[in-house]
């Protein structure tokens, strides 16, 4: 009987892991993907959706044909309970799915209750529904412009998206002839500009400061938010920053169903993993991407999270796939790559400009790290989007 691998989640981590396991074993394995969504979402493009530069159909595609072409079974159903002893996963529909090996790639949830009033009074772009909601607010703002607050709360990790939305907002204001009618303020938990949740890179603070001055954007770093009122962001020191439009990146939290498995997750709901991406508790359970716990090698006065989307998620998925394949062959997991050692590659768009971020490691200490500014990065981001959608839709997960 062939080994059965069950993958929870069908986006970057789940799609990559499922097809990579199948390829590692030359098809001689049964792989099933369970996901609450039937479409892949290219999250990096959510920054453009509120401005009408992308529609949901531009940055999503149905995953069933991709999995079918790779010989992977796909079932649209959300996981509800993992039983590691029985080696089963129960879904919200009540079906029970057995597994020999389990790969968790369920991502996270937005913690919209982390700051009082965030859910009710603000907007966010860290999910498709959030970006659509933000687009509706942006169109109302265009009819009645005023001051803008963009930022990331304490505990947030998607600082890159916050910066991209910030600079794209400034660009869109200028195009609409509204730049002089809207003061923009950036509020972030980062200890300094350009920290990005990865400890910063050489000259990053100076470069981001230059971008903000050029765009006439005020900013506050190392700032926690105590509340988002209707019309004002309230910081921990009691300062009220008024707005007519706001977009705040929230922190993430782990999936609730994972917390119900004894010893699987930490207090935040993230799966504790080794550098093989095996669970520290269960040898045959793996976690990749946002679902995996990552410990930053620092503490900051105001808490910041670590970004795990995109390339890091894919790298983790490939390590997990190699190790699952090894175990199925009766070997010990031999592929190791700690999160901090994964290379950092990111293209930050700024409307008609941008910054290319490159480093030999996601987290310090590093030997190399560089930020390359310039308008070519906007074109690079567009090409990056088209390539990744083609790659993932075609199931070409072995490509870089």
Automatic annotation (TrEMBL):
It comes from the Bacteria. Residues 4-292 form the FAD/NAD(P)-binding domain. One of its GO terms (molecular function) is oxidoreductase activity. Pfam families: Pyr_redox_2. Signal peptide: none annotated. This is Sulfide-quinone reductase. The lineage of its organism: Bacteria, Bacillati, Actinomycetota, Actinomycetes, Micromonosporales.
């Amino acid at each position: 009987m062939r080994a059965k691998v069950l993958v929870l989640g069908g986006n970057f981590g789940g799609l990559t892991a499922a097809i990579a396991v199948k390829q590692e074993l030359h098809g001689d394995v049964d792989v099933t993907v369970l996901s609450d969504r039937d479409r892949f979402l290219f999250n990096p493009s959510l920054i453009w959706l509120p401005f009408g530069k992308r529609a949901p159909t531009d940055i999503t595609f149905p995953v069933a044909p991709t999995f079918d072409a790779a010989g992977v079974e796909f079932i649209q159903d959300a996981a509800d309970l993992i039983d590691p002893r029985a080696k089963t996963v129960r879904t919200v529909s009540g079906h029970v799915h057995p597994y020999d090996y389990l790969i968790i790639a369920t991502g996270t949830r937005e913690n919209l209750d982390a700051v009082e009033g965030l859910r009710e009074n603000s907007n966010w772009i860290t999910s498709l529904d959030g970006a659509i909601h933000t687009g509706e607010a942006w169109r109302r703002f265009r009819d009645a412009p005023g001051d803008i607050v963009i930022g990331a709360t304490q505990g947030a990790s998607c600082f890159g998206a916050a910066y991209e939305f910030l600079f794209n907002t400034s660009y869109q204001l200028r195009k609409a002839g509204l730049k002089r009618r809207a003061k923009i303020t950036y509020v972030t938990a980062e200890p300094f500009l350009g920290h990005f949740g990865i400890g910063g890179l050489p000259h990053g603070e100076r470069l981001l400061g230059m971008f903000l001055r050029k765009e006439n954007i005020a900013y506050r770093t190392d700032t926690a938010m105590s509340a988002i009122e209707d019309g004002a962001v309230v910081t921990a020191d009691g300062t009220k920053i008024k707005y007519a439009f706001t977009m705040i990146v929230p922190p993430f939290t782990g999936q609730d169903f994972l917390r119900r498995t004894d010893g699987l997750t930490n207090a935040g709901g993230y799966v504790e993993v080794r550098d093989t991406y095996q669970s520290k508790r269960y040898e045959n359970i793996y976690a990749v991407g946002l679902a995996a716990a990552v410990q930053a090698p620092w503490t900051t006065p105001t808490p910041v999270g670590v970004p795990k989307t995109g390339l890091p998620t894919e790298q983790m998925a490939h390590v997990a796939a190699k190790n699952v394949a090894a175990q199925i062959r009766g070997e010990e997991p031999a592929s190791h790559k700690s999160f901090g050692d994964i290379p950092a590659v990111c293209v930050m768009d700024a409307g008609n400009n941008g910054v290319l971020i490159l480093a030999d490691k996601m987290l310090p200490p590093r030997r190399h790290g560089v930020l390359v500014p310039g308008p070519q990065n906007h074109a690079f981001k567009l090409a990056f989007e088209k390539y990744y959608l083609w790659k993932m839709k075609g199931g070409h997960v072995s490509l870089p």
